[in-house]
């Protein structure tokens, strides 16, 4: 899995996941339960992961929808 997007905003992660699901690209959210450690203040970002072979297309989809994928 490769990191596609990192955000503190859960709505951004949800929107990106929905866009990619519409294109049959599977996603996996990491760090979802980190709020237990941080006290639910939203400091630690969540990461949206995709398969390596889907990374290029997934980045293009996010850019086309004015979301900024992670570099790297």
TrEMBL record:
SUPFAM superfamilies: GlnB-like. InterPro entries: DUF2007 (IPR018551), N-reg_PII-like_a/b (IPR011322). Residues 1-64 form the DUF2007 domain. Coiled coil: none annotated. This is DUF2007 domain-containing protein.
């Amino acid at each position: 899995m490769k990191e596609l997007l990192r955000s503190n905003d859960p709505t951004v992660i949800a929107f990106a996941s929905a866009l990619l699901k519409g294109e049959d690209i599977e996603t996996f959210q990491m760090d979802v339960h980190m709020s237990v450690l941080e006290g639910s203040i939203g400091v630690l970002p969540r990461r949206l992961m995709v398969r390596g072979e889907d990374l290029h297309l997934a980045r293009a989809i996010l850019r086309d929808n004015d979301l900024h994928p992670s570099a790297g």
